[in-house]
């Protein structure tokens, strides 16, 4: 019988070190957690799509945004998480909420910021998440007109000479400020056709004739910009949007 040159090749058995075994176990644990996260995330997306059909206010069509609800959800999560994880939790939940909102219709965001455009764009991206369709525009009035249609929102700089915000008391009175970006004294504001009861709890945004002396009631006030005798400011006073005090919205 001729001698066969075929040799069986057996896989070499490699013994893992204790460190490698521990790492493999941790990776398996992460995989199991990822599976749970995926299942819960997809479940949340399905529920969010159903919620969207119940959001239209009885007074007329508004954007699907509910800043008050988002504020409540985020505050609840931040109160439950460990302090060292707060920043990560905030970013994660912004994305989760953003993708849930996208199941109700992808949010369109127009950003106008001739000064520090990156700062305004990054603020919008953090607020609305990667699911939102965000683009820079050159005309604040066109962005306001877009927001007035109720299908999207505008993020507009206020640290400029263009006093677009004066229109919130006049031709754009159907719009409300609902967020601000740039720190304690924001340099840009988000506006949209928001159902008034859905505005966040926090400082009110006021547009008034005259200076920034306040209302005399002792409420703290932050001046944001002035133009030809008109002022836009933040106040801690409890004001109702659309009333005579010039309240045009609120930021958390």
TrEMBL record:
It comes from Brevundimonas aurantiaca. The lineage of its organism: Bacteria, Pseudomonadati, Pseudomonadota, Alphaproteobacteria, Caulobacterales. GO terms for biological process: chorismate metabolic process. It is an enzyme of class 5 (isomerase). GO terms for molecular function: chorismate mutase activity. Its EC number is 5.4.99.5. It holds the Pfam family CM_2. Transmembrane segments: none annotated. Residues 17-108 form the Chorismate mutase domain. This is chorismate mutase. InterPro entries: Chorismate_II_sf, CM_dom_sf, CM_II_prokaryot.
